[in-house]
Every structure is written in C-alpha cells, then in structure tokens.
Amino acid sequence: MPHLTPREWQVVELAAEGLGNQQIARTLVTSLSTVRKHLEHRYSKTGARSRGAAVAMMMPVHEQW
Q1: Other C-beta atoms within 10 Å of 7: how many?
Q2: Is residue 12 part of a domain?
Q3: Is 65 domain-assigned?
Q4: What is the pTM of this model?
Q5: What is the pLDDT of residues 3-33, one digit of tens each?
Q6: For residue 59, what pLDDT is reported?
Q7: Domain that holds residue 49
C-alpha cells in the first residue's frame, strides 16, 4: 500500500464518504487547489485513473466468506 501523508488520508476518507472537492476543502479549512493537489498526489501514488478507483484502492480489503 502506498504511503500517504496524514492529510492525504483525510482527503481519501472524506472522498470515500462522498464529499466533493469543495466540501472537502471547507471541512479541512483549506483551499480547493490544495485539495486538488492532494488528490493528484493520491492518484500518482496509487496509479489510479479515477477518484473512485483511488478510493477503492485505499479502503481495507475484506475477505470473502
């Protein structure tokens, strides 16, 4: 699993909850461009090509029963 900064993890978690970039920026009290940059870092670290794929890659994998 790629190493993400604590702030990048916060962005991942909020994106997984369904928040948009603007909502994430407001929640974290940061700029929209900063949120976008965190997302870019996440994409490059995970190799994901979409927001959904990046979020899915970072969520825990559950075993099938």
Answers
A1: 14
A2: yes
A3: no
A4: 0.78
A5: 788 998 899 889 989 999 999 999 999 999 9
A6: 66
A7: 6-58
Q: Is residue 14 part of a domain?
A: yes
Residues 6+ apart with CB under 8 A from 36: 21
With tokens 């969520």, the residue in question is 59
Distance CA 17, CA 3 (A): 21
**Helix, strand or coil, per DSSP, at residue 16:** helix
Residue 51 inside a domain? The answer is yes
Give pLDDT tens digits for 31-47: 999 999 988 888 888 88
The first and second tokens of residue 51, run together, are 């927001």
What CA–CA distance (Å, rounded) separates 26 from 12? 15
Asked if 51 and 37 count as a contact pair (C-beta separation under 8 A), the reply is no
CATH code: domain of residue 14: 1.10.10.10
Two structure tokens written together for 24:
């994430």
> According to the model, what pLDDT value does residue 64 have?
44
